[in-house]
Structure formats: structure tokens, C-alpha cells
Amino acid sequence: MAVVAEMVRPASLSAEWKRIELLAFCLLESRGGRQPTEGLLAQLRESQHQVELLRQEGRLWNSLPLENLPELALDMLAAIYAPAINPNVALLFQDLQQSSTINPTLAFLHRLLAFTDQEYALAEQLAQEQGELVGRGLVLGEGEGPLLQLQPHPALLPLLTGLPRRRLRVPGAVPIDIQAEWDELIILPAQRRMLQEYLLWISHAGQVVNEWGGRPAGGPIALFSGPSGTGKTFAASVIAKQLGWDLYRVDLGALVSKYIGETEKNLNALFDAVQGRDILLQFDEVDALMGKRGEVKDARDRYANMEVSHLLSRIEQHQGPCILTTNLRKQIDQAFQRRFHFVVTFPRPEAQERLALWQHLLPQKAPRAADLDLALVAEAVALTGGEIRNAAHHAAILAAADCSPIGMQQVAIGVWRVLQKSDGQTRINQLRQLAGFLPREISQGEAT
Question: Candidates 3.40.50.1010, 1.10.230.10, 1.10.8.60, 3.30.470.20; correct CATH number of 351-445?
């Protein structure tokens, strides 16, 4: 789906919603065996004239990717989005369709917009999976034939309302909201290239399958492996940002159940909720579930293998990208690894990458002391990106509290605090060149 850069002014589309509301009132009168009053018809004629003028002037739908769409498609868009934005239309649609849903079916649009047979055939084409409305990501479709239900794309609703984007509730998953850009992702060129190819796979798989006759491959599925703090989740956030999609972290612990059949039920609910949505799924610590298989000794072992097989099957069938992460790639069964389309390794950063991380993660507007030597800091202690982020933030807090610029002492304390969290056997000499910058009360009082 094309990324929309400019927000539409909500008021500019009010004429579209009003026209749909008046059409619904007229249809309601007809359903009741009554002729619409002349006053209602006059309002409808005036509303339709206003919409035509505004469309001709390019003041409606002007920030959505609507190039070369027929006028009928704009009428359909108005009828699909109106009930999600105008509460009066929502109630009218529920009443007219005698349903709890506010999303119109093709059959309902046929009656509401008074399609001719030719117009209905065109509407069917527009609403097909590869049609102009669904294919461009302007609407979502569920079902088939005349009862195909059309609904607004959740990514576009905030652009039309001016309201904050509503997060989809996904069973067993939580949204990750990290504003990440490519230039903030400090990794080796080989890893960066693989991530770019992963994006290309997502963007061009449809062309390969639908236009070139390629075989559907699902996914793509990627395995991100590496120690904690090396940028796996940050890289996933960069990909989601590039796509303009939401990133959701799947909690496998919440999905896996000790009760027979519950795990499969939970997984099905997860994938059913995200089907057809612009959502990137991230499964963390999959080595716990996809470890090397041992001897099957009892029914529980057989059932555990069935759970893993079901998970992999649903991931492979899912027509959307999934990212699996692990800190222990060697623990994952080779039979599982062959199913991944990409395997990207995130190693601990070398001195050059650590220097770039320090330069980026220290607050850019913070004053820096003359003695601050980030090259020495990067060389001294081999921290991961996540650890550098924590140490840099700690140093900045200390400097702000002292009303002083960030210097070597604050950075040394920040690094020391990070090292202390790793295990209970931290030694001052692990700071190497930074040890001399640690205040005496810390180096003598806390060294173990």
C-alpha cells in the first residue's frame, strides 16, 4: 500500500459523508414503502452537486493513491468509509442491512448507489483481491460474491478523521512502537543488504506470483539471531516503519497451553486476526519452542511436537511477513531452519560500530565535555547496542543532575552500572581504560 504523506483535512470529506447519509435515508424510506419527500430529494440533489464540484476541483480524496480510479470507485469509497466516520450513517447501515455490522456488502452498495448491471460488474472487479480498491490497499474485503463485505483500511482511517490511529487487538500479541529509521540502524553492510532484500520480498512477491506466474511461497519468514541487545527488534521496527505497517510482538508463553488443543486454538485466533492486515509479526525466543528434538517418551512429547508443527504450518501459510528471533540459533533444530526464507545474524558490534552507536545514542543536544573521548570508550568495553543505549542514558542523567556536560566520568559510571547488571562477578578491571575515570568512592566501595 502506498504510504500517504499528507493528511487529508477531515472537514473536506464531510460532503461525501453527508451524501451517503441522504442516500441511506432515501433507501430507508423506499424500504418502508414510502416515497422520499421532496425536501429530502432536494437535499440529496444539492449534496450530489456539491460533491461533483469538489471532486472536479480536486478537493476530495486528494491525498490518497486514487490515480486513474473511475468515478464509481470514489462512490464506493465514500459508502465504505462513511459509516466508520459518521455515526448517523453507521446506524442507518445497520438498520438497512439488518445486521450488527456497519460494513456494506456489494449487494447493499448495489441498492444504495443504484448500480446499473454494468456498474455492478465494474464494482465486482474493483472489489476483487487484485482489483483497484483492494489491490491498492484502500479497502479490505471479506467473503465473496454479492455478500462480499467491504471495510475501511485501518491505516487510512486516521488520515480521514484526524484522530490518532487505533491499534488492532491481536490475541496473544502486543504492539511495538519504536520510531526507527534506516540511518539509526548500525549494522554491517551484509546484514543491511539482507534486510533490504527482505523488504523487496514483501513488496514484490505479488508481482512475481500474479504477473509472472511464480509459485506462492508465503511469508516471507525471517530468523533474526544474535545476543540480546544487538538490534533484532530495532531492525524489525525499521522494516515495519519502511512498510508503513504495525509491528506486533507475539508472546509465545501466552499462546502455548498445557491443555490439549488450546495452543492450536490460540494460534489460529492470532493468525485469523491479522489475515489481510498490514501487520508484521515478531515471535521472540523461538529456540524455546523449536529446540532440537529428542526422543519421544510419552504423549506430552508427541503433543509438543504437534504444537511446533502447527505453529510452523500457520506461519508458512500466513500471507504476510513474520520475523522469529533467537539468542541461541544453535539450539534450533536444522529441520526448522530450512523453512526460513532469510536468516540474519546480528553479532556483537565491533569497535567501529560501537563508536557509531555511542555517537548516536548520547543525546544529540546534550553538552559534551572536552575530555569526552568516545573512540576510547568504544574500544574499552565491548557492549551491545542495547547496553550502550542504557549506559548513554545513565551518563546523560548524571550530567543533567550535576548541571554539567557529559564527560568521561559520567560515561564510565554508566558503563559500570551496565556491567554490574550482567552478573555478580564484575571487576573494575573490566572497564579497562575507563577504570581511571570512575570516582574513588565507587571503585573502592563497590568493587567485588
Answer: 1.10.8.60
How do 139-142 and 149-152 pair as beta strands?
antiparallel
Q: What is the pLDDT of residues 236-269, one digit of tens each?
A: 999 998 888 889 998 777 777 666 677 788 888 8
Does the predicted TM-score (pTM) go above 0.70?
Answer: no
Total Cβ atoms within 10 A of residue 402:
12
Instruction: Quote the CA–CA distance of 251 and 171 in Å, as a whole number.
Output: 9
CA 172 from chain centre, in angstroms, equals 15
Of 65, 61, 64, 89, nearest in space to 75 by CA: 61
Please tell me the distance from the alpha carbon of residue 82 to that of residue 74, in angstroms, as a whole number.
12
Domain boundaries, the chain: 10-161, 173-345, 351-445
> Contact at 8 Å (CB) between 332 and 286?
yes
Distance CA 166, CA 246 (A): 11
Please give the Cα distance from 394 to 399 (Å, whole number). Answer: 9
What is the pLDDT confidence band of residue 277, given thresholds at 50, 70 and 90? confident
Contact 142, 151 (CB under 8 A): yes
Do β-strands 279-283 and 322-326 pair in parallel, antiparallel, or remain unpaired?
Answer: parallel
**Other beta carbons less than 10 A from residue 294's beta carbon:** 7
The CATH number that domain 173-345 falls under is 3.40.50.300
Q: Cβ of 122: how many Cβ atoms within 10 Å?
A: 18
Category of 293 on φ-ψ map: left (φ > 0), alpha (ψ -120 to 50) or beta: beta
pLDDT in tens, 50-89: 999 888 887 777 667 677 788 999 999 999 999 999 999 9
Higher pLDDT, 208 or 350: 350
On the CB side of 268, CA atoms within 13 Å amount to 7
DSSP 13: G
State how far the Cα of 409 lies from the Cα of 133, in Å rounded to an integer: 59
What is the C-alpha separation between 232 and 323, in angstroms, rounded? 9
* Strand partners for 406: 368
Pull the grid cell for residue 284: 521472540
Residue type, 386: G
